[in-house]
Amino acid sequence: MSEMNNIILLIIISGIALIINLVVTPFLISLSHKKSWYDITNDRKIHRGNIPRIGGIGIFVSFLLAVFLFVVICKYTDIRLSTISRYHYLALAAGFLIITFLGIADDFFSLKAWQKLLIQITAALIVSVAGFNLEFLYIPFLEQNISFGIFSHLITVFWIISLCNAINLMDGMDGLAGGIAFTASLFYGIIFFMTQNYTAAGLSFALLGAVLGFLVFNFPPAKIFMGDSGSLLLGFSLAVIPLINNSDGGFSQTIFMPLIVLVIPAMDMIAAILRRRRRNLSIASPDREHIHHKLIDFGLSQKKILFVIYSFSILAGLAAFLYSLLEVSKPNSGLPVFAAAWCSCIALFLVLHYKNKARKKKTAQN
């Protein structure tokens, strides 16, 4: 197949996922209203009213069906996929299934933090043991690889769990987590296609369509939320897809590129952990100081907040694309782009933190 035909196939797969979810999500909304499956409101939640919370199921169903069709089509064409056996695909499917059911269980029964962590570890281990691993760290200036050996499984599990929870923490406003995942999936798909990792590109475009189908019903004012089933699935997907790498098991394309694309949720999670540890609270303790909460406190509407965060996410995606272009031409030449993206995001968070702190102090004095 020509490159143009490959592009058309990826667009078709994305379109199939979109259409499936456009059919599945209205059914989920109707079912939720009949069963009164609504998201619980509290002082941290922005929404009011009875909103269903099982949109993640629609993302899961449409994503998995689209991926299945993609693999079947590739089997009968000459698209060169990464060397993955049916057992590897089964391991991936098992991981996606476990993480989605974990989210569903948490949405309905509010599982304890240790229970969620244990199940997340199980899903991540299945993927890691199947061979989707971070195997070494390349030291640029020394031009040496440090092998992780048996610790590769531990590091891979940590990577997957971290992104699962980073996206989960961003799911606090209509269209927010879904929009970030949509942007990440788009740039994942483009970058993996550019680097001829067609398996990862196919999964990225399938996720892109599934998330877009959900966003149609989640953009403010939302008719349905993704729930933990959706946010954990998206985090898991965005962590695992880069591990399906047909070049190496190191940090370059596998970690640095995704950490540029997802710099905002990653930074928001790090800030939350530091904030809670500074206050001697559990890192699992909820609060109302995530980036979208700070922007709300400045008086921005939900749509304006989405515009701000979407804009930064697109810029991050473009930076990741530039990073990948540089890495293709010369290994490690993209590291300044990685550093610039993270320094810019840190600066954004610091400005928001101190301006919000000054605003609260001024309000208290008045």
Protein topology:
Layout: H1 3-35, H2 55-75, H3 86-109, H4 113-129, E1 136-139, E2 144-147, H5 151-170, H6 176-194, H7 198-218, H8 227-240, H9 252-261, H10 263-278, H11 291-297, H12 302-329, H13 335-365
Characterization of this structure:
The chain has 366 residues and is mainly α. The protein has 13 helices and two strands, in the order ααααββααααααααα. A two-stranded antiparallel sheet has the order 1-2.
Summarize the entry for a quick read.
The chain is 71% helix and 2% strand. It has 366 residues and is an all-alpha fold.
Q: Unreliable segments (pLDDT under 50, ≥5 consecutive)?
A: none
Largest sheet, described in full? 2 strands, antiparallel
Portion in strands = under 5%
The helix/strand series, from N terminus to C terminus, equals: HHHHEEHHHHHHHHH
Class derived from helix and strand content: mainly alpha
Helix content: over 70%
Q: Please, how many helices?
A: 13
Alpha carbon gyration radius: 20 Å
Please tally the β strands and state the result: 2
- CA-based shape: globular
Mean pLDDT, to the nearest integer, reads: 90
Strand order of the largest sheet: 1-2
Q: What is the terminal-to-terminal distance?
A: 68 Å
